[in-house]
Amino acid sequence: QVQVVESGGGLVQPGGSLRLSCTASGKIIFPISALDWGRQAPGQQRELVATINSGGATTYADAVKGRFTISRDNAKNTVYLQMNSLKPEDTAIYYCSIWGAGAGGTYWGQGTQVTVSS
User: Each residue of 5-25: pLDDT tens digit?
Assistant: First the structure.
């Protein structure tokens, strides 16, 4: 069984920053797993925000390039999403997933709410 738990969401003013964390545990080999951050705004489909593979290579959605940074700490089985210059349109529930060879499937967490508002 695999558990994925996100944290770090909250209310922030436009232009502010937040750092999300996601820790995975259970039957996984974290260092050879890939990790995603996705988000879902009310009334919209979930969208992929950022990915980091086992080698540390990253990709980002155009909407967050230059503002968000995904990183991982294999010693802590944790992936982070540093979000800077936040905009109201970044408001969403943010989800983390672990997948690939080290996970044996795709597992999502329950999500953490991010609200950007003045």
Answer: 999 999 999 999 999 999 999
Mean pLDDT of 71-81: 97
The one-character DSSP state at 15 is T
Terminal-residue alpha carbon distance, the chain: 40
The helix/strand/coil state of 90 is helix
In the block, tokens 């982070």 appear at 80
DSSP state of 9: -
Residue with tokens 């970044």: 90
> The tokens 């990915």 sit on which residue?
51
Backbone angles phi, psi at 66, to 5 degrees: 85, -10
Which value, in Å, is the radius of gyration of the alpha carbons in the chain? 14
What is the rounded distance in angstroms from the CA atom of residue 100 to the CA atom of residue 93? 23
